[in-house]
Each structure stands twice: as structure tokens, then as C-alpha cells.
Amino acid sequence: MKLILDDGSEFSGSSAGVPRAVAGEVVFNTGMTGYVEALTDPSYRGQILVLTYPLVGNYGVPGPRAADSLDRPYESSQIQVQGLVVQHMIHDYSHHSAERSLADWLASENVPYISGVDTRTLTRKLREQGTMLGRLLPAEETGQDVQYDSVDMEDELFRLVAPPEAVVYPGGDLRVLLIDVGCKDNIARSLLQRGVTVVRVPWFDDLQEHVAQADGIVIGNGPGNPKHLTSLIEQLSTVLQQFDKPVFGICLGHQILALAAGADTFKLPYGHRSVNQPVEDQLTRRYYITSQNHGYAVDDHSLPGDWEPWFVNINDGTNEGIRSLRKPYFSVQFHPESHPGPKDTAFLFDDFVRQVGAFARP
Length: 362
Hints:
Number of domains: 2
């Protein structure tokens, strides 16, 4: 197998997996663990994932989860990446809960991988030159006819990762509307653990009928450029003018909420994809280590006058959270459900559910 970047760079390696050619945006993640969660995260749809940690697969993969359930550590019902790039693929796993190897799992879902690549050199290239498109293909192929998986097509990429229809997870008297644009399952789990009923709806649904019965709204994560979600942004903009209960945006949901409020977003050179991103709460001056997976950011300077920046990324100074000064609306760029990653900011779910309860009281 070989990986060819759009600038002509080529990285050769080996694979005992699926000999299939794929194309996508090449991105890297620096986490030492969490490949099961990362590979099933819909935010990686249309991308070729590079894992910088040199040993991948040593704790194997759990067995399949029950249909339509939220059990097991998976973040969706399938592997979402186009392909995987690692330095060493470990086939002999050792974790007590594992039922198959990472390579076997990839093969079962027809996802190719390449091993033997110096992923740290590749990562340095992506950091210095920025994220770029690439092709992962068998050594004898050129891959010129391999098409990219809708990475820049309005609406289409987001429809691939959203549920076809609404799903209700019973959990309590309070009803939270979860807008799914490729939402990680652990966001739903985190809400259910706090005793609320979760109504999970695809982003292209008519939100008005769901909003009328909701005590709060969460806008989840997902892949791609938030500006391509024009219909959702227009719907949400209307909702924000009428809805006086709590709204909480996470990752892509943070960007969508900002755009609906009238702010702007921009593409980062290589994004934030790791479990050790430091952020500062600008209200309390506390620092938190966070899990992140995104390629776009909110422009602080574009926020309307009735909004304020909340969190900031310590590494590059980009925005990591915003708050409304008039209504109970707030959002964060990182993942407070952090699966994988630290649990430092899980308290944000507690704060949100507490506000939902307060606004729901007669």
C-alpha cells in the first residue's frame, strides 16, 4: 500500500487488509489510546486518519454492539474513516474485553489501512504545510480515478452521518432535543446518565415540531464545513429568536450555533485532533485539558454584541466557547463527553441539565 498526498509526496508501507483505493482529507490524531472511538466518530467521515502513536491495535476491539443501542465504546454504528495510517499495526491484542483484532475489524467493514509509515514525519509535514487531500491505494495503482468522498459537497456529507429519522431514548421527565449532524453516541449517553429523555433528530428534519416539546436543545458534532449546512443554520436562527430555554452546542454544534447567531467561522491549518488540548475558561481563569476533533473555528471578532467569548485554546489562541449575554445559550469547541479523553469538562453537562430543569419549572 502507499499514501500519496496532493503535493506529490508518497509514503510506502504494507498492509494485510483490504486492497482498496480510497481518497480523502489526510488528518492526524495524537492520542495514545482511543482508536475504537476515533474510527467510529462521524467527524472523521471523508477523511484518512493518521495516528501518531507508534503502536496501534494492542488492546484489540470489542465485539459488535446490539442494533440501535448505545452500548460498547463505539461512537456510531460503523467505521467512519476512509482509511487508516499507522506506524505499527499490532495483531496480537491483550485486553480482556477484546473479541477481535483491529485489522480484522477494518477488514470486516472494507476499510483499508497502511502500516510501516513514519507517522510522526507525516504529521510534521501536515503541521507545517496544513491538512491536504490524499489517496491511499495498493502499490501498483495510480489512484487518479479515485474520487473524494463528498468532502466539499453541500449537505451530502452530512446526510451520510445523520440518522434517517428521529430516535427517542427514554430517561426522565425533562426532554432534550439532540440535533444530529454526525453526533457521537457518547453525547446521548452523557445526557441519559443525567436523567433526561433524549429526542435525537436528523439535522434536516423540521425542527419547529420538535422544539415545541423540548425543554432544552443540544447541537452535536459532525464532519465538514459548518457553512455548508445553510438550511440548518437558517432553521436554527429562527429557533433562537423564539426559544427561551437552554441551548448547548458541542464541536461542530458550537460553530453552527455561532453562525446562526450571526458570527463567522474559518478553516484551521491542520485542525485540533487530540485528547490533550489545553483551554482556559475566561470567566474563572481555570485551565482544562480537553478532547477535540475539528478543522474549523469560530472567529472571535465576528461575534454579535450580545455574545461573548468563553473559552480560548492555549496553544493557538483560537476560540473554544461562546455564551449569549441575553439567553441561556452556550457552546464549546471541545468534547465535554470526551470519549476518548479526559473528563475534566463533563461538568458542562451537569450545568446544562441543571439549567434545563430550572427553566422547565412552572
